[in-house]
Amino acid sequence: ERGIHSGRLFEELGAKNWQEGGAKISEKHANFLINTGGATSTDVSRLMHRMHSGVKEKFGYDLIAEIRYIGTPTQEEAEIWSTFTVH
Predict the structure, then answer these.
(1) pLDDT at residue 1 in the model
(2) Main-chain phi, psi angles of 4, to 5 degrees
(3) Are 36 and 23 in contact (CB under 8 A)?
(4) Comparing C-alpha atoms, which of 62, 85, 77, 59 is closest to residue 21?
């Protein structure tokens, strides 16, 4: 649905306080992830999954991830990424 910004949905979830390992959601804009130092691709994948799942459960929206995975994912990452709709 047009006109609904994912950053606002993440804010309504309270996601600005979320962190997985070295990856956290920006306190300035909830649509940006920050590497606080030493974040792994698994940390980022877990955080994205939490964000995606939270929006789907609370608001019913299946967000489209605008990202391209580079490299060979771990088994956990492959399972997480298989749940995303990727643009």
Answers:
(1) 55
(2) -105, 120
(3) yes
(4) 77
Domain 6-86, CATH: 3.90.78.10
Sequence spans of domains, the chain: 6-86
| pLDDT given for residue 42 in this prediction | 96
CA 80 vs CA 3, 8, 65: distances in Å = 27, 23, 12
The model's pLDDT over 6-51, given as tens digits with 9 standing for 90+, comes to 999 999 999 999 999 999 999 999 999 999 999 999 999 999 999 9
Confidence band of 58 (pLDDT split at 50, 70, 90): very high
Q: Cα–Cα distances in Å, from 20 out to 1, 4, 5, 38, 56?
A: 29, 26, 23, 11, 19
